[in-house]
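Question (not urgent): is this output format expected?
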Amino acid sequence: MAPLLEVQNLKKYFKTNRGMLHAVDDVSFTLDAGKTLGVVGESGCGKSTLGRTILHLIDSTDGKILFDGRDISNPTRRELSRLRQDMQIIFQDPYSSLNPRMSVSETIMEPLKLRKKFSNQEIAERTKALMDTVGLAERFWNTYPHELDGGRRQRIGIARALALGPKFIVCDEPVSALDVSIQAQILNLMLDLQEQRNLTYIFITHDLSVVKYISDEIMVMYLGQVVEKAPSHELFRSTLHPYSKALLSAIPIPKVDAQRELIPMKGEVTSPINPKPGCRFSARCPYVQDKCHEPQVLEEIMPNHFVSCCRCREINEITESVKGRN
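Got this back:
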């Protein structure tokens, strides 16, 4: 069966006074229907730009995007309008992504009205059903965003994204602005909706503990490039790239006496403007050698486990040897 989404060598560069900023640089992956791809990395690594480029909220510089077997790399205005029904986004900030002058019901109704295919009665009925689906009581029908907490605001965003019955949703850090208890509620809601509607997600976050919970596969990005990609359980069991190892070491362990060796990332972050060939993490990597400054290739080291590091096998052997001595 063909994947729902296929991205081939996608690039997004921004022109600056000092040169071209490589926000997304040669990213490729596939995503099957009903699955979740988690995209993780530090702020500024290109996660959100990747999601918005796929949805054509910003235009790509190069590369190909295939959705449901169709090439949507350069859609016409009419094609893009049709795509909006199948591809949606949940934004990070559940307050600034909502119009403060529109009530809960008006916000959810807006995409249904824009389609111009439903009567007023159908729109009202669908809006009530969507509010019920995401756990918003009908008493909030005429409520405005500033009167609600962050969790309820994000539920509005989810309902709006679901309004046209999409197949694919980009979730751009949808829980990062919420309290931990509310995060759990929203994540469980998204998992329930995925099961009920066979939704496909790209889940963008910087929180590896969150992405482990919701993702089938995880893709780690650093300065616009993919450095590691593997099934969720495999990435946490056998982390290979030094950057991924450092990210995992920073996850808090919810036990008083638990200890984990923190791997500090020293050195300056490489500029994403006209970057030199070679590993972009090399300036901060404790295992760097001369060959790391040569162009790196995303290579399949283990079945369905891809890593962009010419020394990952050596590093893994060194790490296992140190563990054995301890």
